[in-house]
Amino acid sequence: xxxxEVSLFLALVLRAKxxxxxxxxxxxxxxxxxxHNLESIVIGRCNSYIRLVNPSVGEKNCSQIWEAFxxxxxxxxxxxxxxxxxxxxxxxxxxxxxxxxxxxxxxxxLLVHRYADKARRFIPLGDSLMGWIVDDLNWCGQMSYPGVxxxxxxxxxxxxxxxxxxxxxxxxxxYARISSGIIYIMLNGSSPGGAFxxxxxxxxxxxxxxxxxxxxxxxxxxxxxxxxxxLDSCGTGSLKTxxxxxxxxxxxxxxxxxxxxxQLIQCVDFPRDHRCALCSSGSIMETSAPIFLxxxxxVVSFGQxxxxxxx
Length: 311
What we know:
The protein is α/β, with parallel strands linked by helices. Helices cover about 40% and strands about 10% of the residues. It contains 11 helices and 6 strands. It has helices spanning about 1-20, 40-55, 60-70, 85-95, 110-115, 130, 165-180, 200-205, 235-250, 260-265, 290-310; strands at about 30, 105, 150-155, 180-190, 215-225, 255. Helix 2 packs across helix 3 and helix 3 runs antiparallel to helix 4.
């Protein structure tokens, strides 16, 4: 009987260990755990950025950047990581953002990055080196071996000073401070909480940290989702609040609803929507984007044929 009890106990312990290794049980937090192969991804993204995406930033020591990054959270309580813990990481990744190239946003990340085109058109925070390296990754530490938690990480609702939130806070402050010239802001007019949420990275960490001597004016673009409601527009609701904040700080600004260049990118996924017609009035209003694309292909094809005939 004693042998059976010991065997059963050992089996239960083994089962618990296997479950822990597979991340099936013992999830302490509701957020996803640390991304596997994090070191390789961080160093690889760093090298890709300085060699291919934006070589103008110059040489950066990607191994040092990784060490500074992991130093901020590994072997630490996942709820006791402060923005200041990433100070060295920020110092090693910071680079100049050309004037008129900064793009801020709320609730439309995918659209912003499609429009920015990997730092070719604009450089939002996620397309700067400090943001590019960690964007869409998960990470957090733990006091026990191996020093990082691959099973779960805390969300901001579970604890404010978590590893991910703290990095984006200091990165947002830094990005605002180094931005200059015309500052562009892209907002989502279909967002239920308002295009300019009162509690947001833009409101809490970016707007208070612009350097007035470096900023000429703000340009605000408000685009509804193509199949979404029109809940907020320039001069009303939360955008009126944003305008008042800029006015009170002495900034000049303009606001545009349904900014057409951005809307055209949205229309790539909704070519037959009435808001994606080539013209807003007149007889060609019903001309669709697919027809326009066919005409463009014909023009290109004709150009190729003409070029071959002249060679």
